[in-house]
Amino acid sequence: MPDQVVFWLAYAIGAAGIAVEWRSYVLYDASAFRRWSAAGAVLWGLMYLLLGAWTAALTMSCTAARTLVSGLLTSETRKHLIASLFITAFVVMTVFSWQGPVSLLPAFAVINTTLALFYLENRSMRILMLASSITWIINDIIWQAWPALLAESVAVLLNLRTISRMKTQ
Hints:
This protein is mainly alpha-helical. It has one domain. It has seven helices and no strands.
């Protein structure tokens, strides 16, 4: 496909991801948040793939599974094991898709979010995930992933609004 067609296709997929991303951040229920967030991760992974951002594409694709699994585990031992496996997978993906220091941005974002999803409750989880959002915003600016930048920026605002309305946990 010609470069322009690929970019517009990536942006169209990213635009679809905007609605999914925003939906997840206004939901108070942690399980619903995880389902919608996982769907958004699939769309972002495809968008980054089309933009040539390999590390971001790989890590976002893996985050879909991570996000769903994180809400299903009740055993502390299993949580530690599965969280460690995902963190190891993210490190390996970063090494194999290395594009320079810019690859550290999605690596930090997904590892930080993994820790938040596996070890924190709903409100605290969302607060820690704000650091990941800022990192993704920087990554989106570098890769000119405008739909993701827009979605992540508004998601930060929606997340802050939802956090402020939740009871302290």
